Amino acid sequence: MPEAIYTARPLTDEEKFFAEKNHNLMYRYIRIHELDLEDWYDILIIPYLQAVKKYFTYEHLQKYKFEQIFFRTLDSARSNYWRAMNRKMRCPSGGIYSYENLVCKRERDDLTGLECAENMAYLANGICNESAENEVVGTEMLKEALKTLDAEEQMIIKKKLYGYSDEEIYKSMGISVKKYNQILDRLIKAVEEVMYDV
């Protein structure tokens, strides 16, 4: 599909003024669709500016309110974003492993709380490995270990991975601190058994 005539050119002074005046629509759109401002502002700002240029380039569009053009353009941009993110090349059947998430951090403090996914991968390997392949293998072994957990144990792991504190977890699950710590100890033993064939 050929590129529209307005896409490559910069905004005119009139369009700049108009874009500034209507910039609050960006925040309104993000709020209406309950999008994360930090993530979506950068994704949607270019389509917003393109909507302004489109509105000024095509006179027949000026019979509509700019909001209509704006919302249609951003809806389309959001749809195109999700379509691009869900393309087969971005969703391989074996999953995706990010090197940044696999790189070993040498400063490990307390592994007993299973503080994050990195610490779990660390448990899976037992020691820090410089090889990303070893980290991936360890992570896969850890996934196998997690399959053996009951629903309560899996819930604790999920909440830990989502960043909940220990206190938030045991309170939300309605269990005592003592029982929570016993479950954590069981989790670590279960993971170690699978990892080290104890």
Describe this structure in words.
Helices cover about 65% and strands about 0% of the residues. The chain is mainly alpha-helical and about 200 residues long. α2 crosses α3 (about 35-55), α3 (about 35-55) crosses α4 (about 65-85) and α6 crosses α7. The protein is elongated.
Chart the SSEs and their pairings.
Elements: H1 13-21, H2 24-32, H3 37-57, H4 66-85, H5 99-102, H6 117-125, H7 132-146, H8 151-161, H9 166-173, H10 177-196
Helix pairs in contact: 2-3, 3-4, 6-7, 7-10
Largest sheet: none
Order of helices and strands: HHHHHHHHHH
Strand percent estimate: under 5%
Q: Helix count, per DSSP?
A: 10
Number of E-type strands? 0
Please state the average pLDDT score.
Answer: 75
Low-confidence stretches: 98-118, 121-129
Distance between the termini: 60 Å
- Category by helix and strand content: mainly alpha
DSSP helix fraction: 55-70%
Rg result: 25 Å
